[in-house]
Design goal:
The chain has eleven helices and 18 strands. By secondary structure, it is of the alpha/beta class. It has one domain: FAD/NAD(P)-binding domain (3-Layer(bba) Sandwich), CATH 3.50.50.60. α1 runs parallel beside α6, α4 crosses α10 and α5 crosses α9.
Length: 516
């Protein structure tokens, strides 16, 4: 046996699982498809930041709402969590019980109360800056270990509009240090989160869990692209994985337990490629119910100097008055949404000043930039995407350089998703007008935070795993990450996937003798 545990992927979930299992004495090997990065590699440059986004052959896209993936995924150490924005909100209790409470979507087979202790544990281990009392929508939990980041001008300008409309805001809970925490320095407010945080103020895998994992013996093999999970002759036990090394040579690695913690699209792709009809797919749900939060930005020009270049990419304030679900009220939709207010902007690219007006070219763009660089403000939305069976990952006929079928990703929006989008758009425009913007516009609807495809649930006939990410079909095969989410809610998923990973690592360690 080459290892006790193989973990596929070094991102948020994989790094947590590696640290916890290695600290419990397990021999862990991580297989990472991308290159190795260190914190010193993370340059504050929009051009450089593209290097840590997904560089692999992209899936073929389809559905009534094709969802682009590039800026939502990662390439190399830390995966997409290397450039995530550290907006760490908890899912709400109703998000876990959507089917039971509202007759829509799925139930997780896991309640908020069951996950709450792990939210609390993770926020202490990692450090979150926030104000639990001001965050009036927040489910029960321990207070944050750090005070919120300082309030900045851009968010304060937008906040005026929320206040005038009777809507509430609070500091954003961020896995970014407002003060020194466990030897990591506080934030510089330079707004380069999208390029990665080289000083370690933002809790990416390189700053927290991967060092813990490697300090106790975890090995990481880079440029190692997993193609299949291997099983015994009966197909009821995972024995290891097949992967292609940096030279493109097929290798195998054997272990007692296999954990798939790759990107949401990649885990189903690997399982679908492992066996005709898909490995761990007795339910027929493998690859289905993939979700992506809808996103857009509201923009406005103000007389105020907004200092929009300062802060953090994820925003300075949040607003969740649009979160409560009740499809029978006058609001006309079930889906939730969260405002992330005062996002730091750079000249171009994602959330860029120029990118806010893609219709302008030449001199009109130059004139706009002169004004907008000083007076533009923005906020972004995280909008719920209901799980649909038609939103799914399958294998296409196209192959990658190793001959492995590429993923086909079909993504659809439910009618309620569009009603939620329209309600959020109208509210966003109203907030900016109330805040005194001389001009208001809404950017193009986009996608963020991919979830589902390997959903958890109590019923083995309707889900891929149980609430620990353990395959219903193969006891020593686990899945970690947002692919487990049975619903999307309307908050960034990274905090929740950390809590799930800690819970699963505890379960696996305690049940090791019966699982491995």
């Amino acid at each position: 046996m080459d290892a006790d545990v193989i973990i596929v992927g070094s991102g948020a979930a994989g790094s947590v699982m590696a640290a916890k299992l290695a600290q419990n004495g397990k021999q862990v090997v991580i297989l990472e498809a991308g290159p190795q990065w260190i914190l010193g590699d993370l340059y504050s440059s929009q051009i450089w930041s593209r290097r840590i986004k997904w560089g692999a052959p992209l899936p073929k896209l389809g559905g009534n709402d094709p969802a682009g993936l590039t800026f939502n995924a990662g390439d190399g150490t830390g995966g997409s969590a290397l450039h995530h924005y550290a907006v760490w909100l908890r899912l709400h209790p109703e998000d876990f019980e959507l089917r039971s409470r509202y007759g829509e979507g799925q139930d997780w087979g896991l309640s908020y109360d069951e996950l709450r202790p792990f939210y609390d544990q993770v926020q202490t281990e990692v450090g979150i800056s926030g104000d639990a009392k001001a965050e009036v929508w927040r489910p029960p939990g321990e207070a944050y270990p750090m005070p919120p980041l300082q309030g900045l001008t851009q968010a304060k300008v937008i906040q005026r509009g929320f206040t005038k409309l009777g809507l509430r805001t609070s500091p954003t809970p961020l896995a970014i240090n407002s003060v020194e925490y466990k030897g990591r320095p506080p934030c510089l407010y330079d707004g380069w989160c999208d390029s990665g945080c080289p000083i370690g103020a933002l809790a990416n895998p390189l700053a927290v869990y991967l060092p813990q994992a490697t300090d106790v013996g975890t090995k990481i093999r880079y440029q190692s692209t997993v193609s299949r999970v291997l099983t015994n002759a009966k197909g009821d036990r995972a024995t290891g994985v097949e992967y292609f090394d940096a030279e493109g040579v097929v290798q195998t690695l054997n272990a007692k337990v296999v954990i798939l913690a790759a990107f949401t699209v990649q885990n189903p792709r690997i399982l679908l490629n492992s066996k005709d009809g898909g490995l761990a797919n007795s339910s027929g749900t493998l690859g289905k119910f993939v979700m992506a939060h809808f996103a857009f930005n509201v923009y406005g020009l103000f007389k105020d100097q907004t200092q929009n270049y300062l802060g953090v990419t994820g925003g300075n304030l949040i607003g969740q008055d649009g979160y409560p679900k009740d499809k029978h009220t006058q609001r006309g939709h079930l889906g939730s949404f969260t405002w992330e207010i005062g996002n730091a902007m750079k000249p171009n690219d994602l959330l860029g000043v120029a990118a806010s007006r893609p219709d302008l070219f030449g001199n009109p763009l130059h004139e706009f930039m002169k004004t907008a660089s000083q007076h533009l403000a923005t906020m972004s939305i995280v909008g719920e995407n209901l799980p649909l069976e038609s939103s799914r990952i399958t294998l296409s006929s196209a192959k990658d350089r190793y001959g492995m079928p590429r993923a086909q990703f079909d993504h659809d929006l439910a009618p309620d998703d569009m009603r939620t989008f329209e309600a959020a758009r109208k509210e966003g425009e109203a907030v900016f007008k109330a805040a005194g913007a001389s001009e208001v516009w809404v950017g193009q609807r986009a996608h963020q935070h991919f979830m589902g495809g390997t959903i958890m649930g109590e019923d083995p006939a309707a889900s891929v795993t149980n609430s620990y990410g353990q395959s219903h079909d193969i006891a020593n095969l686990f899945v970690a990450g947002p692919g487990l989410f049975a619903t999307s809610g309307a908050v960034n998923p990274t905090f929740t996937l950390h809590a799930l990973a800690v819970r699963t690592a505890k379960y696996l360690s305690e049940q090791w003798s019966s699982i491995a």
